[in-house]
Design brief:
heterodimer; A: Arc Repressor Mutant, subunit A; B: about 325 residues; 2 domains; twelve-stranded mixed sheet; 5 helices; about 15% helix
């Protein structure tokens, strides 16, 4: 459902699906998600005021959010090193494909889990993105990202970085 | 295991106009060459000197045009010149970055790993070299737009428009009163947003305590694995590697060897910068899978790996793929 809301906001819903997607919006949960997405969009564009209890509701919603782990077959060559896909979307409905798993050599269990295409809570399912040494070594040198002190590390924590090594 | 957000504080603390901010406003209509580097210095200084708490949204646009958002809580404290900072991921596992007087610890509770980045000269005293300052004004059109607002704070935008296709566009929104960075945005060659971050809520001159910037975990939790990243300073040295076609505006900032975790041999690291971004070149013996080679992208970060003789060359930086590839394809052994 959240994915449909996201697609709706991005104008990616086909006309044929429109009635169905709009019908889904009639629940309070869906409306809350809709509001959440717009508040974040507003914040990124610098328009609108943040809601005072927005963060609290955001966290509560997110805690309840399942992450769908649905591995998609990809050519082995592409999958072996592709580790950049940022792990989480706001809704945590991202399909964390096994490509994202593959970069974390340290968590074979997570990969095995992905293979089972299970639906699990976001808090438990996400593999740990351990930033590559290259990225850590690089990021302090970029003035634009280093302006806010901890800025460079947003990237390391937000997104699994690439592991260059086999 | 989610921690509550830090309590919001009243935003009524008195603010003092910094002399630099006043100078910048005075020059707003006729941005001079050195304004750009002055601006960078001023904003970087504000981020280090002030106490603030807030919530940060980070957006990364994926190659297929989708957007990924993540939210963090941030607390920054400056106590008699000593800096402490805590960044906690608000979704999924509560991943955490704690900076304490230059040393950085990254906690990954989901994989029970703590990474330690030692204090370096760079993360303690970031500054631009004269070459970087020159590039900044020569390769970007710089202007300051006043009278903006971000989430209720009066703000100015510093606009860095690239003059050629070798770099991205950058916009920074800073708090008019304090100079603190409220929002930053990177755009690609087509003017599309590829990466941005913004405070959705911020309290400047917040009352913060040491407890708020302490890690939520012991220095090393009992059954966790420690990864000393040894990503500290590069030991400056000739590496024996050179880039023959450095894109215009980029100059070498440093060159040397690093010992990286799990890498048997020291890794050569060369850094180039145009004053706003950096591009790293890493060279080490090729032991990776062939699939390591080629281009990769994550928001504003591009990377490119190529095999040169028996070595793996990896170029990484906040620049268009064409810039990264040009560097990667012109890495040679120094004659």
């Amino acid at each position: 459902m959240n994915e449909n809301i996201s697609r709706l906001m991005d104008g990616e819903v086909e006309v044929s699906e429109l009635d169905q997607v709009c019908a889904c919006l009639k629940t309070s949960d869906a409306m809350a998600t809709w509001t959440c997405y717009h508040v974040i969009g507003d914040a990124m564009r610098g328009s609108g005021m943040p809601l005072r209890d927005f963060e609290v509701r955001f966290i509560q919603r997110l805690a309840a959010e399942p992450t769908v782990l649905a591995p998609r077959r990809r050519p082995v060559a592409a999958a072996a090193t592709w580790g950049w896909a940022a792990a989480a979307t706001i809704a945590a409905v991202t399909v964390v494909g096994w490509t994202a798993m593959s970069l974390v050599g340290e968590t074979p269990a997570a990969m095995a889990k992905a293979g089972e295409a299970t639906v699990v809570s976001a808090a438990r399912a996400r593999p740990a993105p351990v930033p590559s040494d290259y990225l850590l070594a690089h990021q302090e040198y970029s003035p634009s990202t280093a302006i806010p002190g901890v800025g460079p590390y947003l990237r390391s924590v937000a997104a699994p970085a690439l592991e260059q090594r086999p | 295991m989610r921690r509550p957000l830090f309590p919001s504080r009243a935003r009524s603390k008195p603010r003092v106009w910094s002399p630099v901010a006043i100078v910048l406003v005075a020059f707003a209509t006729s941005a001079r060459a050195d304004d750009a580097s002055q601006w960078v210095a001023h904003v970087a200084q504000a981020a280090r000197q002030l106490n603030y708490t807030g919530t940060v949204v980070n957006q990364i646009v994926t190659p297929n045009g989708g957007a990924k958002f993540e939210m963090f809580s941030l607390v920054h404290m400056n106590e008699n010149g000593r800096e402490y900072e805590k960044l906690v991921s608000l979704d999924g596992p509560a991943r955490e970055v704690v900076r304490s007087m230059g040393e950085v610890r990254l906690y990954f509770p989901d994989s029970k790993i703590v990474r330690v980045v030692p204090r370096t000269f760079r993360n303690a005293f970031p500054s631009l070299s004269p070459e970087q300052q020159k590039s900044l004004t020569q390769y970007y059109d710089f202007k300051i737009v006043s009278g903006e607002r971000v989430n209720g704070h009066a703000a100015e935008i510093a606009v860095f428009e690239p003059k050629d296709g070798f770099r991205f566009g950058h916009r920074f929104w800073s708090d008019s009163a304090t100079g603190l960075l409220l929002k930053a945005r990177m755009t690609n060659e087509r003017g599309e947003v590829i990466e941005q971050f913004a405070f959705t809520d911020i309290t400047v001159n917040a009352k913060v305590s040491r407890a708020m910037v302490e890690p939520s975990w012991p220095a090393v939790p009992p059954d966790w694995q420690v990864m000393e990243t040894a990503a500290g300073d590069v030991a400056p040295n000739e590496t024996g590697w050179a880039v023959t076609r450095v894109p215009p505006g980029f100059s070498k900032v440093t060159e040397g060897f690093r010992q990286l975790r799990g890498h048997r041999d020291p890794v050569a690291h060369l850094v180039f910068s145009d004053g706003l971004v950096a591009i790293s070149v890493f060279v080490e013996p090729f032991t990776a899978a062939p699939s390591t080679l080629g281009s990769k992208n994550q928001g504003g970060l591009n990377a490119f790996s190529v095999k040169v003789d028996d070595q793996l060359v990896t170029v990484m930086g906040e620049a268009p793929a064409v810039t990264i590839r040009q560097i990667g394809n012109s890495v040679v052994r120094r004659q």
